[in-house]
Amino acid sequence: MNLRTPIFPTWCPGCGDFGIWGALKMAITELNIPEEKLVVVFDVGCSGNMADFIRVYGFHALHGRSIPVAEGIAMANHDLTVIVVGGDGGLYGEGMGHFIAAAKTNVNITVLVHNNQTYGLTKGQASPTTMEGVITGSTPFGVIEHPVNPLGIALTAGATWVGRSYAANIPLTKDLIVKAVKHDGFSHLDIFQPCTTFNKLNTQAWFIEHLGQLPTDYVPNSKLKAWEQSEREDKYPIGIFYETNKVLPFHKRLPNLDKGTLISQFPTSVDLTAAMSEFK
What we know:
Elements: H1 17-31, E1 38-42, E2 57-60, H2 66-76, E3 81-87, H3 88-94, H4 96-105, E4 110-115, H5 150-157, E5 161-166, H6 170-182, E6 187-192, H7 204-210, E7 211-213, H8 223-230, E8 236-243, H9 262-265, H10 273-277
Parallel strand pairs: 1-2, 1-3, 3-4, 4-6, 5-6, 7-8
Antiparallel strand pairs: 5-8
Helix pairs in contact: 1-6, 3-4, 4-5, 5-8
């Protein structure tokens, strides 16, 4: 599958987006998903700019609205593999309500979050995951709130697959993306990444010092244990925190989809030739 486009990424040198971009391309290649069976929905922001840098069927959504777009695509044709690419601002800030609703519904989509703890594209304002006390353009006296725990929120909302990775560890990120996509239901992968331009705290050196591992005997089948690990701040563990197949994905609970996808039951007869001709 040719994933190349003629546009090279415009991200800052050293940005974690490069690692996630590479890991996602490797994962798609390994999964060997037919081109017409994959859709990637991009949010707005530095992460969303990936829409120009990877050749897939995609949709560039409004800020914070990528998840409901992905849900609509997955519900119209549940034979598709649907992936969301967005940042901590769009998905944990503007789109937090959508994130919670999709996890609760257990719609079969994979949500990949570029978590750099800042609004990178709009010059480094504090995001929902910015750490307490950090001085930013929007918090000149330091952030006074404690950051959100996105993994804990996903677990509480009902996500059936929850994990965390680090952008610089491309092989691990690739492996976790593959496992998340293969999961039948809502999967959420939070990916730590440095923002070299605006986040001067959570740097590559900071992550090397503060990232850890889940316990060697850890089994990701307990929501309570997963929650406890998600709350750790001594060493932020990476890996799969929780997964279960006990909850059916949303489309398998709808009897009207037993006959097939919505698009197969109600095929469109609209001729889009004229509308698309202007884009040639």
